[in-house]
Every structure is written in C-alpha cells, then in structure tokens.
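Glyoxalase
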Amino acid sequence: MAEMNKDHNRVVWMDIPVADLARASAFYEQVLGLPVHQEAVGEVAFAVLDHGQGNGACLIVQPDRVGSLGPLVYLNVNGRIRAAEAAVTAQGGRVEQAIHAIGPHGYRALIIDSEGNRLALHSETDQ
C-alpha cells in the first residue's frame, strides 16, 4: 500500500471477481488503458491493475462471485486491524474470515457489516 493510500484514503484496494483471468485481464487493460500484471501467491492466480501511487485493484478468479456478489472493497484500518475486527461484532456485524496474511500484501479480515455488505479490513501489520 502506498504511503498516500495508508495516510489519506479509506478505500485502499478492490478484488474484482472474474470467471476467465486472461479474458478479464485483456478487457481491463484495454478499457482502462493501463498494464495488467498476472501474478500468483501460492496456488492463487490473480492479475493486478497497474496503480502506481493510486488505489489498487486485482482481478481474481472467483466465478461464483461474478455478478450479484461483485467486487470486494478493502477498507483502510492500518495499524489497528485487531481493534477494527473486534468492533465489527460489537457494532452488529460479523467476521466472515478472521485476520489472516495475504502474502506480501499485509493482512485482511473479511467481514459482513451491520447492513449485510461484504467488505475486507486491511492493514500492513496484524496489529
């Protein structure tokens, strides 16, 4: 996460579900007019939309989430992910997946907010 994102932005990342990674990569590369880089962490293949110092996004193969479940928005809770995760249930939401590492990209927790929206909390550390 770029310093600008950590210090100034609430939304820091998005996972965009796709059925066909190559097709989706070509689509976003042409529509947005920027490079899309295919990568993998372990068995998970994905493609990162070039973002430099801006907010980022990646295409991730999740055919069952294409359409109505849509993109996963990552909210910035840098340096306080444990407190943020605890606040989820205290405020009427629920934790779908507890804090876990996401390779070299920090940590996230998947949550359902008080209104039923699926979101990710993101931090560079697991604190």
